[in-house]
Amino acid sequence: MVIAEDHLLVRAGIEALIATESGAEVVGVCSGYEALMECVDQEKPDVVVTDIRMPPTMSDEGIRAATALRAGHPDVAVLVLSQFLDPTYLLALIEQGSSRRGYLLKERIAAPGELISAVRTVASGGSFIDPVVVESLVAAKARNDAGLLRHLTPRERETLAEVAAGRSNLAIATAFNVSERAVEKYINSIFVKLGLRGDRDTNRRVKAVLMFLDSGPGGGEIRPR
């Protein structure tokens, strides 16, 4: 794992938390964009944990690093840490796909198991979105989106709940005891009914989940993993 963070105390805290995880090893520590990209080229880590704002511009270096790594090192997972509750950063992060990408607020790093859970999720090929950021996105959406969920069949609604819980198509197929192809059909039908035909698949999944979470009391319940 490579850690990119320009604040010494935050960087030390992340290293300390990672050290508690069995099998996790920090192979590089950086404080800026250029150093991060060079470190990844040399060390070829499985995961990068990076701040959003770092030298040289202190703007969106973490997001730009994630985009560059998607092209140059597609197998490297990236967890972006931010002190800003700004959905714009999240949408930029997942614009080219949400697999192996995560977004966690810095204020939540100290929460028991939160950082480790996020790292594990992206390292295994999944996506992690801080629940607080999800709530912010949901609050910004038009309330009438939730009405579209009434058109879903019970099985489609169950499928969407599984997607919201972060499960892959294969995991959903196993849970429902159906083929992965059947799950793909459920999800495609969900996209059509929710009016999500035009977007790329990864972004449609995110938007569908947000609509599910915004569906009101009881409608957006996610079962524990």
UniProtKB/TrEMBL annotation:
InterPro entries: CheY-like_superfamily, NreC/VraR/RcsB-like_REC, Sig_transdc_resp-reg_C-effctor, Sig_transdc_resp-reg_receiver, Tscrpt_reg_LuxR_C, WalR-like. Residues 145-216 form the HTH luxR-type domain. It holds the Pfam family GerE. CDD domains: LuxR_C_like, REC_NarL-like. It comes from the Bacteria. It comes from Nonomuraea composti. The lineage of its organism: Bacteria, Bacillati, Actinomycetota, Actinomycetes, Streptosporangiales. This is Response regulator transcription factor. The modification 4-aspartylphosphate is found at residue 51. Residues 1-123 form the Response regulatory domain. The keyword Transcription applies. Keywords: DNA-binding, Phosphoprotein, Transcription, Transcription regulation.
